[in-house]
Amino acid sequence: MRATELARAVRAGERSAVSVITFCLDRVIARDGALNAVTRLLAERAIDQARHIDAIVASGGDPGPLAGVPFGIKDLFDVEGLVTTAGSHVLADEPPATQDALLVRRLVAAGAIPLATTNMDEFAYGFATDNAHYGLTHNPHDTTRLAGGSSGGSAAGVAAGYFPLSLGSDTNGSIRVPASLCGVWGLRATQNLLPTEGSFPFVASLDTVGPFTASAGDMRLMMDALTGQTLARVDTDGLRLARLGGWFATDVSPEMEAALAGLCRALNVGREIQLPEVAAARAAAFVISASEGGGLHLDRLRRQAALYDPAVRDRLLAGALVPAPVAFRAHKLRRWFRDRMHEAFEATDLLIAPAVVGEAPRIEAPVLMIGGKAVPARANLGLYTQPLTLAGFPVLTVPLAVEGLPLGAQIIAPPGREDRLIAFGEALELSGLARARILED
């Protein structure tokens, strides 16, 4: 179920696209009752497109680098003919989308096939994919645990082997958190690198969209399709590496600390860098998210408050009340923190940090231990992702090669250096230090 392998087999005529799609549809139908990662199957469209791809191959043509590869779509991207729900009943009466979102169109043009829309926190406001309308998404590796969010359905779908590629969004960690908890690759690209056209917004100044994949090689292939450009090959020998300390070394679980320490030993990482005012940066991300999200929804809240998920509604209402001077100060801090991030990269090429505190929290007790206290997971799974969000730098979540439940590391690069991130991820995968955790048959 690696995209690179599937596309090669389909393009060579060794496997039909129809057989791939049929297998994946059957897998979702058989297994998703226990996971709830998928909200809508696009079966008719997927089979029709697969037949078209097989016809191109049979005639001697090339349907594209992602020929026959199925992918999942977070339910905030437009899919032609469907209402874009953004995980909510509030939008149920909106007209169906007249065309696919731009990133969906780019994947289709590369030969990939939309298979399903995936579950999410309502309006992408949360880290748990616990949705009052569409239910809770369970972790494929232990269904008693959270998958993370808000792109939990997309991450869980890759981990469950429904599709090797999926689209998500990341405002404060909504790709990085579920990628870590589900054991797959996830990329928050440089702010504004990937177009958000055709995706429902949450926080316009922080929103990014991006991919989950089953391998680092798949990430390269998918980013080529999403950007329309061929990612440069980068020599990773000699890259200067450092681990983020301070905030990013506090409250880390024993399992995560052992995994990160092992990774750093294997890579001979001896340097530690501490970013200044990380707590303030996280607070600023909270304030910007709340104020912009609340402002976006204020008119709908006045008319349709009862249709919102109560947990989301209350946070949006609170955000709408944030005074303008407070939001202004948060944006001012954002600019300052971005400058400090640039300074950190004067002495290093890549930074390493935990993606989350540790393993996926249990559904029956959705808490994390922070500062010696049990705090709600839904609000705090972004402890290590939210501060980095503020700067808008690209971050690759790497599924570490560990025993037990999945654990992920954030690898951070300067803006525009996705080429460096993915090359480094490929090197980690080749060395055995990183591997996705995909359920087998």
TrEMBL record:
Pfam family, one: Amidase
Gene3D superfamilies: Amidase signature (AS) domain
Source organism, top-level taxon: Bacteria
Domain annotation Amidase: ranges: 20-421
Stored InterPro entries: Amidase (IPR000120), Amidase_dom (IPR023631), AS_sf (IPR036928), Carboxybiuret_hydro_AtzE (IPR014087)
UniProt-listed PANTHER family: GLUTAMYL-TRNA(GLN) AMIDOTRANSFERASE, TRANSAMIDASE
Protein name: Amidase
UniProt source species: Asaia siamensis
Gene from which this protein is expressed: gatA
